[in-house]
Structures are given as C-alpha cells and as structure tokens.
Amino acid sequence: MKILRQFSIILFISFLGEGLKMLLPLPIPASVYGLILMLLALCTGILKIHQVKDAAVFLIEIMPVMFIPAAVGLLESWDALRPVVVPVLMITAITTVVVMVVTGLVTQIMIKKGRRKDERVSE
Questions:
Q1: What 3-state class would DSSP assign to 27?
Q2: If you write DSSP's letter for every residue of 78-98 in order, what string do you get?
Q3: Closest Cα partner for 55 from 94, 92, 14?
Q4: Residue 56: which residues within 8 A CB-CB, separation 6 or more?
Q5: In angstroms, rounded to a whole number, what is the distance separating the alpha carbons of residues 91 and 78?
Q6: Residue 10 φ then ψ, to 5°
Q7: Distance between CA 96 and CA 106 in Å, rounded?
Q8: pLDDT in tens, 23-38
Q9: pTM for the whole thing?
Q10: Cα(33)–Cα(17) distance, rounded to whole angstroms?
Q11: Is the dihedral of CA 19, 20, 26, 31 positive or negative?
C-alpha cells in the first residue's frame, strides 16, 4: 500500500506537469514541468523524500524496460534511418563525449567548492 501511495504522488505531480504544459505556451515537455514541480516540492519541504523514495527507486530499477518500445520503433523504421545512420552515430558519439566531459568538469568544480566551504567552516 505504501508503494501505491508513493506512486500516486508521483503520478499526481506528473499530472500537474501535464496541466502546466496545456496552460503555458512554452516549448517545454510536460515531463520537464513535472520534474521541476517535484524538485520544488522536495526543496521547499512540501514533499519529503521518504514519501516517494521507494516508488522512485522501483521506477529507476525498471527504467531499462521502458526503452524496449523505442528500440523496436527504431528497428521498424530502419529503412528511413539507413541513409542517415552514420551521421547520427557520429553526432551521438560526439555529444556523449561532450556531455561526459562537461559533467566531469562541473563535478570537479562542485567538489572543489565543497572542500573550500568545509575548510572555511573548520577554521
């Protein structure tokens, strides 16, 4: 019953994201609105992590299964993708490397800032 309640909370916030998508004329996906609402609810204390943690862990664990329909869709449209497969693979490889580098750099910056903050506090 606990997981059902937590899942219901996540679905409700997703539903609010869908509502925002209909109300606001911005080119932002409803899922992003839902994620922002979830972040705001968690940061402000309206929602506590323990109120959604178990359902969120479950959803993360089954996430690979959610990619199966997309993979099947790609296989079904292979004839349309064949002429552009090399550029798409190159773009995917390059952007993956760029995202990894940027993520690493941002993480290093955040760790250094955290260390400096800890050093100031300990002095």
A1: coil
A2: HHHHGGGHHHHHHHHHHHHHH
A3: 14
A4: 6, 10
A5: 18
A6: -65, -45
A7: 15
A8: 998 999 999 999 999 9
A9: 0.63
A10: 5
A11: negative
